[in-house]
Design brief:
Structural class: mainly alpha
Radius of gyration: 14 Å
Helix content: over 70%
Shape: flat
Number of strands: 0
């Protein structure tokens, strides 16, 4: 169950990051609300995951999911560059997260 909590924490982290961009572009209260909810739930699920998972592993995977997921969502939703170098390094981050799961 801890890994499921960690995945949920990463998903809510991506939602929070996406809402930061939406807040900057639109400046509306809906974006602010979803940003606060996204980050709040992200921290709650991260805390639940860390009850069983080592801190270093949980934090590395959580930040990796947030960073790579935010970059992917930026490409899909906001037209950010999709060059091969960006995709390569996103793949490396995700591969590292999978490696940490395997060795945990």
């Amino acid at each position: 169950m801890s890994w499921m909590y960690l995945i949920l924490a990463g998903i809510f982290e991506m939602i929070g990051v996406t809402m930061i961009n939406s807040l900057h572009k639109n400046g509306n209260w809906k974006s602010l609300f979803f940003m606060l909810v996204g980050f709040g739930l992200s921290f709650v699920f991260l805390a639940l995951a860390m009850e069983k998972l080592p801190m270093g592993t949980a934090y590395a995977i959580w930040t990796g999911m947030g960073a790579s997921g935010g970059a992917i969502l930026g490409m899909v939703l906001y037209g950010e560059p999709k060059d091969w170098k960006r995709l390569l390094f996103i793949t490396l981050v995700l591969g590292s997260a999978i490696g940490l799961k395997i060795v945990s």
